[in-house]
Amino acid sequence: MNRYIALVLGSAILASGSASAADNVTSQEDIASAIEVAFGVTATTRYISRGVAQSTGPAIQGYIEPSYGIFYAGVWASNVDLGTSDRAEIDLYAGIRPQFGDLSLDLGYAHYFYDKTGSCCGEWYAKAEYAFTEEFAAGGEIYYDHENDAKYGVLKASLALPHDFSVSGAYGTYFDNTNDWNVGISYTLQEKITLDARYHDSNQGPAYFIASISFDSSFRLGR
What domain of life (predicted)? Predict the structure, then answer.
């Protein structure tokens, strides 16, 4: 009888251990499948940031961004020509993107590096966009560099047009007399390739007409 009870208890323990192991494997697979990795590359006739040219000619820019739920982190890079020895900019960033109905938020921090001079600076950012209709969305962004006590804000809007076209524009300011704005039209092919023609202007320097082509995609781990 005691031997029978021992066999029953032993089998139950083994079964329990096997179930726990199976649950653990399932959990790991679920976590892996919930991790999405977005990536993309852009070729542009000139790298423009906040109305100021960061390159004297064409630029190639790329990024990779893993995310899990509302959490994300990524790296973005571009060639630059700033009149210095630096030839590349590398941005590291991380944050969260919660969504409340038609309101999308993006809260995070980005730090900027250059290939020769190293760490430059960093900014906290908060972005909000509201989809008023399926075609029209508008929002704003605010950036704060706590080391240099510098602020930059943007108001923007976009309107989807028939046949996968859209128009968009933005107005940015450093909250002083330094302002910039842009307006452009885009065409998206199969939700992955985007052609964009955009006019940039500011009170900091010359205006630019920029053309770019972008490829964006994503995949999930564990699939």
Answer: Bacteria
Structure-token match 């070729």, residue found: 43
Mind listing the domains of the chain with CATH numbers? 5-220 (2.40.160.40)
Question: Rounded distance, CA 45 to CA 13, Å?
Answer: 66
Strands (E), the chain: 35-44, 48-49, 52-53, 59-68, 71-79, 88-96, 99-100, 103-114, 118-131, 136-145, 150-160, 165-173, 179-189, 193-202, 208-220
Q: pLDDT digits over 197-219, tens only?
A: 999 999 988 999 999 999 999 99
Is 48 buried (19+), middle (13-18) or exposed (0-12) by CB count in 10 A?
buried
pLDDT of residue 4: 37
CB 51: neighbour CB atoms within 10 A?
A: 20
- Give the global pTM: 0.84
Strand-pairing partners, residue 118, are: 114
Q: Are 171 and 157 in contact (CB under 8 A)?
A: no
